[in-house]
Specification:
Distance between the termini: 40 Å
Mean pLDDT: 93
Largest sheet: 8 strands, mixed
Order of helices and strands: EHEHEHEEEEHEEEEHEEEH
Length: 273
Protein backbone atom coordinates (compact mmCIF):
# COMPACT_ATOMS: atom_id res chain seq x y z
CA UNK A 1 0.00 0.00 0.00
CA UNK A 2 1.25 3.47 -0.86
CA UNK A 3 0.26 6.79 0.73
CA UNK A 4 1.26 9.95 -1.12
CA UNK A 5 0.93 13.67 -0.38
CA UNK A 6 2.16 17.07 -1.43
CA UNK A 7 4.50 19.18 0.71
CA UNK A 8 1.70 21.09 2.45
CA UNK A 9 0.49 17.96 4.25
CA UNK A 10 3.83 16.37 5.13
CA UNK A 11 3.74 17.82 8.64
CA UNK A 12 0.39 16.20 9.37
CA UNK A 13 1.88 12.82 8.43
CA UNK A 14 4.81 13.05 10.86
CA UNK A 15 2.75 12.02 13.90
CA UNK A 16 1.27 8.99 12.09
CA UNK A 17 4.73 7.91 10.96
CA UNK A 18 6.02 8.28 14.53
CA UNK A 19 3.15 6.28 16.06
CA UNK A 20 3.50 3.47 13.53
CA UNK A 21 7.24 3.31 14.17
CA UNK A 22 6.56 2.96 17.90
CA UNK A 23 4.11 0.13 17.14
CA UNK A 24 6.66 -1.66 14.99
CA UNK A 25 4.83 -1.21 11.69
CA UNK A 26 7.08 -1.89 8.70
CA UNK A 27 6.98 1.36 6.74
CA UNK A 28 9.29 3.22 4.41
CA UNK A 29 9.26 6.96 3.76
CA UNK A 30 9.69 7.33 0.00
CA UNK A 31 10.91 10.11 -2.28
CA UNK A 32 9.20 11.28 -5.48
CA UNK A 33 11.61 9.15 -7.53
CA UNK A 34 10.82 6.07 -5.46
CA UNK A 35 7.09 6.75 -5.83
CA UNK A 36 7.54 6.98 -9.60
CA UNK A 37 9.47 3.69 -9.63
CA UNK A 38 6.66 2.00 -7.65
CA UNK A 39 3.75 3.52 -9.63
CA UNK A 40 4.95 5.11 -12.89
CA UNK A 41 1.40 5.87 -14.13
CA UNK A 42 0.67 8.39 -11.37
CA UNK A 43 1.11 11.99 -12.47
CA UNK A 44 4.11 13.59 -10.66
CA UNK A 45 2.19 15.98 -8.40
CA UNK A 46 3.45 14.36 -5.18
CA UNK A 47 6.28 15.42 -2.88
CA UNK A 48 6.53 12.42 -0.59
CA UNK A 49 4.89 9.30 0.68
CA UNK A 50 4.99 6.19 2.83
CA UNK A 51 5.18 2.67 1.42
CA UNK A 52 3.87 -0.34 3.37
CA UNK A 53 5.40 -3.33 1.67
CA UNK A 54 3.44 -5.84 3.75
CA UNK A 55 0.05 -4.23 3.13
CA UNK A 56 -2.43 -6.50 1.37
CA UNK A 57 -5.83 -6.12 -0.24
CA UNK A 58 -8.47 -8.48 -1.63
CA UNK A 59 -9.07 -8.05 -5.36
CA UNK A 60 -12.59 -9.42 -4.96
CA UNK A 61 -13.90 -9.53 -1.36
CA UNK A 62 -17.29 -10.87 -2.48
CA UNK A 63 -15.68 -14.03 -3.89
CA UNK A 64 -14.07 -14.71 -0.51
CA UNK A 65 -17.36 -14.20 1.32
CA UNK A 66 -19.19 -16.50 -1.10
CA UNK A 67 -16.60 -19.23 -0.42
CA UNK A 68 -17.23 -18.85 3.31
CA UNK A 69 -20.99 -18.89 2.66
CA UNK A 70 -20.69 -22.14 0.66
CA UNK A 71 -18.72 -23.69 3.53
CA UNK A 72 -21.45 -22.59 5.96
CA UNK A 73 -24.07 -24.41 3.84
CA UNK A 74 -21.90 -27.53 3.50
CA UNK A 75 -21.55 -27.69 7.27
CA UNK A 76 -25.34 -27.74 7.67
CA UNK A 77 -26.12 -24.04 7.90
CA UNK A 78 -29.41 -22.76 6.54
CA UNK A 79 -30.06 -19.42 4.88
CA UNK A 80 -33.48 -17.79 4.64
CA UNK A 81 -33.85 -14.41 2.96
CA UNK A 82 -36.83 -12.69 4.53
CA UNK A 83 -37.75 -9.23 5.73
CA UNK A 84 -37.80 -9.17 9.52
CA UNK A 85 -40.60 -6.95 10.76
CA UNK A 86 -40.22 -7.32 14.50
CA UNK A 87 -38.88 -9.41 17.37
CA UNK A 88 -41.27 -10.61 20.11
CA UNK A 89 -40.94 -13.17 22.87
CA UNK A 90 -42.57 -16.48 23.79
CA UNK A 91 -41.85 -16.50 27.51
CA UNK A 92 -38.08 -15.79 27.28
CA UNK A 93 -37.47 -17.19 23.81
CA UNK A 94 -37.04 -14.66 20.97
CA UNK A 95 -39.63 -14.83 18.20
CA UNK A 96 -38.58 -13.53 14.78
CA UNK A 97 -41.59 -12.14 12.90
CA UNK A 98 -41.32 -11.90 9.13
CA UNK A 99 -43.91 -11.00 6.50
CA UNK A 100 -44.99 -14.63 6.16
CA UNK A 101 -43.64 -16.67 9.09
CA UNK A 102 -42.65 -16.72 12.73
CA UNK A 103 -39.51 -18.40 14.09
CA UNK A 104 -39.05 -19.23 17.78
CA UNK A 105 -35.37 -19.59 18.64
CA UNK A 106 -33.29 -20.22 21.76
CA UNK A 107 -30.81 -17.45 21.07
CA UNK A 108 -30.64 -14.69 18.50
CA UNK A 109 -27.83 -12.56 17.08
CA UNK A 110 -28.54 -9.18 15.53
CA UNK A 111 -25.72 -8.48 13.07
CA UNK A 112 -27.36 -6.26 10.46
CA UNK A 113 -24.76 -3.53 10.14
CA UNK A 114 -26.25 -0.07 9.76
CA UNK A 115 -29.75 -1.59 9.68
CA UNK A 116 -29.43 -3.06 13.20
CA UNK A 117 -30.92 0.03 14.85
CA UNK A 118 -34.36 -0.72 13.39
CA UNK A 119 -34.43 -3.87 15.52
CA UNK A 120 -32.67 -2.60 18.64
CA UNK A 121 -35.08 0.36 18.83
CA UNK A 122 -37.96 -2.12 18.91
CA UNK A 123 -36.25 -3.86 21.82
CA UNK A 124 -36.31 -0.56 23.74
CA UNK A 125 -32.55 -0.19 23.58
CA UNK A 126 -31.57 3.26 22.36
CA UNK A 127 -28.21 2.63 20.70
CA UNK A 128 -27.04 5.76 18.80
CA UNK A 129 -26.11 3.92 15.62
CA UNK A 130 -25.80 6.00 12.46
CA UNK A 131 -24.40 5.37 9.00
CA UNK A 132 -21.35 6.86 7.35
CA UNK A 133 -22.07 6.68 3.65
CA UNK A 134 -19.04 5.90 1.49
CA UNK A 135 -18.89 6.24 -2.29
CA UNK A 136 -17.28 3.99 -4.91
CA UNK A 137 -16.59 4.17 -8.64
CA UNK A 138 -15.16 1.53 -11.01
CA UNK A 139 -13.16 2.19 -14.17
CA UNK A 140 -13.35 -1.11 -16.05
CA UNK A 141 -10.20 -2.64 -17.62
CA UNK A 142 -7.99 -0.02 -15.95
CA UNK A 143 -6.66 -2.08 -13.03
CA UNK A 144 -3.32 -2.47 -14.83
CA UNK A 145 -2.59 1.23 -14.21
CA UNK A 146 -1.72 0.58 -10.54
CA UNK A 147 0.10 -2.30 -8.86
CA UNK A 148 -1.26 -1.64 -5.37
CA UNK A 149 -3.73 0.54 -3.42
CA UNK A 150 -2.69 4.20 -3.51
CA UNK A 151 -4.12 6.79 -1.11
CA UNK A 152 -3.75 10.51 -1.81
CA UNK A 153 -3.82 11.94 1.71
CA UNK A 154 -4.44 15.56 0.71
CA UNK A 155 -7.76 14.82 -0.96
CA UNK A 156 -8.81 11.93 1.28
CA UNK A 157 -9.41 9.30 -1.40
CA UNK A 158 -7.80 6.10 -2.65
CA UNK A 159 -7.58 3.98 -5.78
CA UNK A 160 -7.26 0.19 -5.70
CA UNK A 161 -6.79 -2.32 -8.56
CA UNK A 162 -9.68 -4.82 -8.34
CA UNK A 163 -11.06 -7.59 -10.54
CA UNK A 164 -13.95 -5.29 -11.45
CA UNK A 165 -11.50 -2.59 -12.58
CA UNK A 166 -9.84 0.36 -10.91
CA UNK A 167 -11.85 1.18 -7.77
CA UNK A 168 -11.92 4.78 -6.57
CA UNK A 169 -13.21 5.33 -3.03
CA UNK A 170 -13.43 8.18 -0.59
CA UNK A 171 -15.45 10.74 1.35
CA UNK A 172 -17.90 9.96 4.12
CA UNK A 173 -21.14 11.62 5.09
CA UNK A 174 -23.76 11.13 7.76
CA UNK A 175 -26.78 10.69 5.53
CA UNK A 176 -28.96 8.00 7.08
CA UNK A 177 -30.37 4.99 5.27
CA UNK A 178 -33.01 6.58 3.06
CA UNK A 179 -31.57 9.71 1.47
CA UNK A 180 -30.53 9.52 -2.20
CA UNK A 181 -26.81 9.42 -3.10
CA UNK A 182 -24.94 12.71 -3.42
CA UNK A 183 -24.02 12.96 -7.09
CA UNK A 184 -21.48 15.65 -6.26
CA UNK A 185 -19.44 13.15 -4.30
CA UNK A 186 -19.35 10.73 -7.23
CA UNK A 187 -18.19 13.55 -9.49
CA UNK A 188 -15.53 14.44 -6.95
CA UNK A 189 -14.15 10.89 -7.01
CA UNK A 190 -14.03 10.87 -10.82
CA UNK A 191 -12.22 14.22 -10.90
CA UNK A 192 -9.73 13.07 -8.27
CA UNK A 193 -8.97 9.88 -10.20
CA UNK A 194 -8.26 11.88 -13.35
CA UNK A 195 -6.12 14.29 -11.34
CA UNK A 196 -4.01 11.32 -10.23
CA UNK A 197 -3.92 9.26 -13.42
CA UNK A 198 -4.86 11.58 -16.30
CA UNK A 199 -7.39 10.55 -18.95
CA UNK A 200 -9.63 7.65 -17.99
CA UNK A 201 -12.57 6.08 -19.84
CA UNK A 202 -16.19 6.55 -18.76
CA UNK A 203 -16.65 4.86 -15.39
CA UNK A 204 -18.41 1.48 -15.40
CA UNK A 205 -20.52 1.78 -12.27
CA UNK A 206 -20.96 3.71 -9.05
CA UNK A 207 -22.49 2.89 -5.69
CA UNK A 208 -22.80 3.97 -2.09
CA UNK A 209 -22.24 1.78 0.96
CA UNK A 210 -23.41 2.12 4.56
CA UNK A 211 -20.80 2.00 7.32
CA UNK A 212 -22.44 1.37 10.72
CA UNK A 213 -20.95 3.97 13.05
CA UNK A 214 -21.16 4.84 16.74
CA UNK A 215 -19.99 7.96 18.61
CA UNK A 216 -17.01 6.27 20.32
CA UNK A 217 -15.87 4.41 17.20
CA UNK A 218 -16.22 1.03 18.94
CA UNK A 219 -18.60 -1.76 17.87
CA UNK A 220 -21.39 -3.22 19.96
CA UNK A 221 -20.52 -6.84 20.78
CA UNK A 222 -22.33 -8.82 23.44
CA UNK A 223 -25.72 -9.48 25.02
CA UNK A 224 -28.67 -7.11 24.90
CA UNK A 225 -29.23 -4.90 27.92
CA UNK A 226 -32.82 -6.11 28.30
CA UNK A 227 -32.85 -9.67 26.93
CA UNK A 228 -30.29 -12.31 27.90
CA UNK A 229 -30.99 -14.50 24.83
CA UNK A 230 -30.33 -11.73 22.28
CA UNK A 231 -26.79 -10.82 21.27
CA UNK A 232 -25.40 -7.94 19.22
CA UNK A 233 -22.53 -7.70 16.76
CA UNK A 234 -22.58 -4.51 14.71
CA UNK A 235 -21.10 -1.03 14.47
CA UNK A 236 -17.67 -1.89 13.04
CA UNK A 237 -17.43 1.42 11.16
CA UNK A 238 -14.88 1.12 8.32
CA UNK A 239 -13.40 -2.14 9.61
CA UNK A 240 -16.07 -4.79 9.14
CA UNK A 241 -13.94 -6.79 6.71
CA UNK A 242 -11.13 -6.85 9.29
CA UNK A 243 -13.11 -7.24 12.52
CA UNK A 244 -15.96 -9.47 11.31
CA UNK A 245 -14.19 -12.83 11.82
CA UNK A 246 -12.98 -12.15 15.37
CA UNK A 247 -16.36 -10.66 16.32
CA UNK A 248 -18.08 -13.81 15.07
CA UNK A 249 -15.71 -15.95 17.10
CA UNK A 250 -16.38 -13.90 20.25
CA UNK A 251 -20.17 -14.06 19.81
CA UNK A 252 -20.06 -17.81 19.12
CA UNK A 253 -18.13 -18.26 22.37
CA UNK A 254 -20.69 -16.21 24.28
CA UNK A 255 -23.61 -18.19 22.91
CA UNK A 256 -21.85 -21.45 23.78
CA UNK A 257 -21.24 -19.99 27.28
CA UNK A 258 -17.49 -20.36 26.93
CA UNK A 259 -14.97 -18.21 28.79
CA UNK A 260 -13.65 -15.72 26.25
CA UNK A 261 -10.84 -14.41 28.54
CA UNK A 262 -11.56 -10.96 27.10
CA UNK A 263 -12.75 -7.77 28.73
CA UNK A 264 -15.78 -7.02 26.56
CA UNK A 265 -17.19 -4.27 28.76
CA UNK A 266 -16.02 -1.47 26.38
CA UNK A 267 -18.17 -3.05 23.62
CA UNK A 268 -21.34 -3.57 25.67
CA UNK A 269 -24.50 -1.72 24.72
CA UNK A 270 -24.74 -0.74 28.40
CA UNK A 271 -22.32 2.10 27.69
CA UNK A 272 -25.19 3.98 26.05
CA UNK A 273 -27.61 3.57 28.98
Amino acid sequence: MLYIWNDQSLKSRELEIKVRNELGVDQQVVTPKEIHDLEPNIKPFYHGGVYYQHGRHARNPKKILLKLFDLFLKKGGKFLKMKVQDINFDEEKPVIITETQKFIVDKLVIACGAFSKRLTDNLDEKIPLDTERGYHVHFKDCDHLLKRPVIFSNRGFGITPMEQGLRVVGTVEFGGLNNPPSKGRIKNLINNAKYMLGDLPEHEDEWMGFRPSLPDFLPVIGPSKNHKNIFYSFGHHHLGWTLGPISGKIIAGMIAEENTNLNLKPYSSLRFS
